Amino acid sequence: MTDVLMGRSVDLPEWVICAGCRTLAYGKRFRRDLLVCPECGLHERMSSEERIAALLDEGSVEELDFSVDTGDPLGFVDSKPYTVRLSEAQAATGMMEAVVCVRGTIDGNPVMAAVMDFCFLGGSLGAAVGELITRTAELALAERTPLLVVTSSGGARMQEGALSLMQMAKTSHAFRELDEAGILTISLITDPTYGGVAASFATQADAIVAEPGARMGFAGPRVIQQTIRQSLPEGFQTAEFLVERGMIDMVVPRQALRVTLARLLSAGSRRPAAPRAADRGGAAGAVLVRDSRDLPASEPWDAVRLARALDRPTALQYIQAITDDFVELRGDRLAGDCRAIIGGLARLDGVPLVIIGHQKGRTTKELADGNFGMPSPAGYRKAARLMRLAAKLGVPVVTLVDTPGAHPGVEAETEGQAVAIADTLRLMTGLPVPVVSVVTGEGGSGGALALAVANQVLAFSNAIYSVISPEGCAAILWRDSSAAPQAARALRLDARSLLELEVVDAVIPEPERGAQGDHGATARNLKAAITAGLDELSTLDAARLVENRRVRFRRFQALV
Q: Looking at the chain, which terminus has fewer C-beta neighbours within 10 angstroms, N or C?
C-alpha cells in the first residue's frame, strides 16, 4: 500500500490495507475502483499518469513538450543539495517535474490539462512548474480550448526562494488572460492543495471541483496550530468544509469526476447549438400572452395564495425538466453558499447558458435549508458570480424568480444585504448577453428584482410581483394585517395587472389546474417561452442588449 500512497502507478499486491480504516481490500478491485477504499471511501493519492488515464478519453492524450528545465537558482542546500533532491525525485517518479501537461478530450470535449503530482517534491510550485502551467494556459488561449488544472501540492517550493513566489503572479496573469478571452477554466482539487497553489491558480478557475476529503488552504493545519495555538474544527479545510462555506462548487467522488467534467466542458463551451426545428418559434410564441385583455380578471388575493402554494414546481424541478447537462455551481467564493438561490451551467436545446433561480423547496427540510426562498447576501453574491461567468463565456442568462423577498435578519444585515442586492442590480444592467427572467411564483420586493433586471421579463399567469407583501402593506397602511386581500387589490400584483402596467412583457398561461396541477405541461410552456425570448434576443449584439435593457427600465416614470 505504500507505493499507492506515494502516488505511483504500480502493480498492487493481491491484498492491500486502507490507510484510513485499515480494512483489507482486494487489490484488483481497489485498482478498478480508482484507488478508493470500498469500505470507508478514502480516496488514496493518484499519480499524474493514473489521473490522466482516469479522466481523459483513451487514445486522445498528447503530452505537451515545452522543454522546460529545472535549475538551481539559489544553489540551495539543506541536508542535501537541491540538485540532488531533484535528481532523486526524477529517478523515483520518472517525471521531469511536478506537473504533466497534456491535450486531449473528455467525453469528446477538447481540453488542455495540467496535472500535478504530489510524489514529486510534494507537488511544490517552482519556476519550472509555474512555467509549464503558464505555457499550457497560453496554448489554451491560442487554441481557444478550455483549461483543466488538477492540483496536488504542499505549496511554493522553498528551495527556489522568492522565484517560486513569483510563479503565483505569473500563473494568475495567465488565468486572467483566459478570463478576458472568455475561455472556460476548471480546477480539480485533490489532496492536499496548500500554500501558493491554493492562493493562485487553483482557486481562480470558473468552476472548482474537489474530491471527497481533499484538503485545501493557504496555511496547513500544523502551521496554524503552532502559530496561533488554536484548536481547529472537525473537518477543517476538507472539501466538505469548504463547499458549505462557499469556497468551492462541488465535491465529486472519483468515479463520477469524468462525467462531471464532461458536463462542465459541454455546458461551458461555445460549440454550435443543434439546429432548431423550423416551427419552434411559432410554437413558442403561441404560449405567450402579450395583451392584458386576453387574460381573465381574477381576485388578486387568489393569485397570492396560488403563487405561494407549496406544491408548485421549484426552480430546481424546472431546471431539471427544461435543460440538459445542468451542473450546479455553489458558493460566493467569500463566505458561504446560500441554498435559497441555485444556479449553474446548462444547455437548452443545445444552447449553452447560465440558469439561476430562487429555490424555496417543498418538504420541511428543503424549506428550512433554503430559508423559504429568502436569500442571504451570499446568495446574491453567488448569483452575481454566475452572471459574470455568463458574461465571460458569452452565453445567455435565464433567471427563475420565486421569493417572498430577501432574508430580513440580523445576520443578513451584518453581512451587507443591501449592498449585495445593489451590486447584483448594477451588474445585471450591464450584462453583455441576453437575459430572460420569469416570475414563476412569488416576486417579493428587491429580493426578486435582484434577479429580474432582464431584456425580457415574463410571469406565469398565477404569479405575483410586488414592492411588499399584501400582509406587510396592510399592517403598515391599514394597520391591520387582516386587510391583506384589500391590499393585494390595491397593489395590483397579479399577472394581468403586471402586464397592463408593462412590468412584465408577457404572461405564460398555466394549465387549467395551475402549475401545481400539471408540472410537465407547465415546464413545457416555460421552456417554449424562454426559447422564444432567447431566439428574439439572439439577433442583438452586446451594446444593443445593454441599451435594450436600459430603455426597458428607463420607461418607468411618473404618469403625467
A: C
